[in-house]
Amino acid sequence: MGVMDTLTRSTADTVAKTDSKKWAMDRSEALRVVFHALDGDDSGSIEIEEVLHLATGMCQTMSEDDARAWFQEMDKDGDATVDEAEYLEAMLKLTDDLSPQQFEHRVKDLLARTNKEVTDPRWYYHCENNREYLEAEVVPLLESGLNEMMRAIEAERLRVASGKDWDEDGHVPPDWRPMRPLQFLGEYLRENSRTMVRKREEEARLAAEAAAKAEYLNRTFDEMDREQKLRYSFDKIDGDGNGALDFDELVFVCRKINPGKGVEEARMQLSWMDKDGDGQVDQDEYVNAILEIMQDVDEETFVNGVKRVLTAVQFAKADRIEKLKMVFERVDEDDSGELDRDELTKLAVALVPGGDEVKVRKTMKWLDANGDAAVSFEEFKGPMIEATEGLDDDQFDAAVHKLLAAEGEAVEPDPADDLPPKFGAYVTQFPSHAKCKWIGVKRVDSMTRDEKKICVVDCRSPDERAVSIIKDSVPLGDVKFVSFEDNNVEAVAGGADVSAACEGADVVVCVSAVGAEGGIAAPILAEKLEGKVEVRNLVGGIVAWYNAGGEVVDGEGNPVEAVHPGQRRCIGFVTRARKNAFKFPKEEK
């Protein structure tokens, strides 16, 4: 059976013949409603996964091959997604032979299967299994309600007959009213409906959460047990207070809490967190999953991990003064509100690269201007603001991270955190991300403004470079990359000679599509250049550069609005406002 036959097989047996005026449905409008129902992530386009979900949901006999063929028929521009215009054009042709009755039936059936909430009565559909629903839920509830009503009527009859409600004179009181059976039944059905039962359960859950929250908020952090510490950290992460976290945020959180866990392993561990399948993780789901992940971690590591998360959240929301306050409190080990000589010495050592003693003494004198060996935050704040005035935000944050790092080592913000969540989670799972030095687009832009010399080495294949390159970049060679297990990047980088191009550079930046190939090449080039210049991998690659508004050019140096994402799966990471002119060729059927 072909795609057309599969999608448009007759539903005449299930639709009664009706006056055609009753079925006057605007087809374009109806199909747009279906499109937005299918576009579950509101991206403005339908991906193959959404089409497969649609196909299997609306037609049990449609194979995956049929669905893929239909998808490719609609994907006119070959970008691996179907936008509204492409969808509408294809669907109007596809449904042209349907009668008005068949068309309306199919549209309403599709909407019902997407589980999208329908408020407009034009699109409401009575599902074919309504009888099962009535028999399973409505009839038993109605039967129970009628039984309760009869018991209430009998109880009232006996109470009236007993004279219990009469006054001293043997009369019914003026404010007495007889029971209203239909009102009783309606209230019973409403209070015991599935909606109201769920509402009461949700209210009970929220009340229990509030009680548990009140319990741990009355404790200091050190007094909290593991579960309470996680609930406390959840509240801090949940900035908008909606009680739920996005899945990709949780990957970031897991990576911050326990750096020893690989990102891919963390994603696998977290894949079952969303127990109710609503696409979000509530507090209970979060706490239970993290407790399981961290069950074999000792207490000190667990506490330090949670504190790192809390610090990261606080840091992200803080301004410069607040960040300096964090540094001050970190150095003020005895919480005296002043830095004594020992604390000043530790701070000075952290501020001076290499720990040169002369420079350390000068730094201490600079911090403690009056020489009383007691520096308040107000005294500390002034020289620090003055000293960091010329730093951009990334440089300032890197300096503060160095001072906040528990091990005393410089810790730069991960540029992947500046990428959209899904993009950032994707690039941080690369094995090379944890091994090589990296740099973000913001830092490259800052160095460019400071007129630093940057040598860009393009670590992509010739086909990718043919679409666009970063101006004045140096090609690494004939790179072939299928996966981290199947590529020749190491061999090409090992045989490449980029020393002449990199001479005099302040930094060498390896660029690939999204950062995979560059992460392999960067350490090899760094070794070949013998430490004469720092070599870093551009996180997110040319796609991140392009998304941030960076210029790309063709082989003749002309600016273009096109970038090759490396692999089809990465096409969705290209989010620049202007549409990407590059399209993958259509796959052969």
UniProtKB/TrEMBL annotation:
One of the record's GO molecular function terms: calcium ion binding
Species this protein is from: Micromonas commoda (strain RCC299 / NOUM17 / CCMP2709) (Picoplanktonic green alga)
SMART domains on file: EFh (SM00054), RHOD (SM00450)
Annotated protein name in UniProt: Calmodulin
Gene3D superfamilies: EF-hand (1.10.238.10), Rhodanese-like domain (3.40.250.10)
Residue ranges occupied by any EF-hand domain in the UniProt entry: 26-61, 62-97, 225-260, 273-296, 319-354
Keywords: Calcium, Metal-binding, Repeat
CDD domains in the record: EFh (cd00051), RHOD (cd00158)
Lineage of the species this protein comes from: Eukaryota, Viridiplantae, Chlorophyta, Mamiellophyceae, Mamiellales
Record-annotated Rhodanese domain positions: 450-554
Signal sequence bounds: none
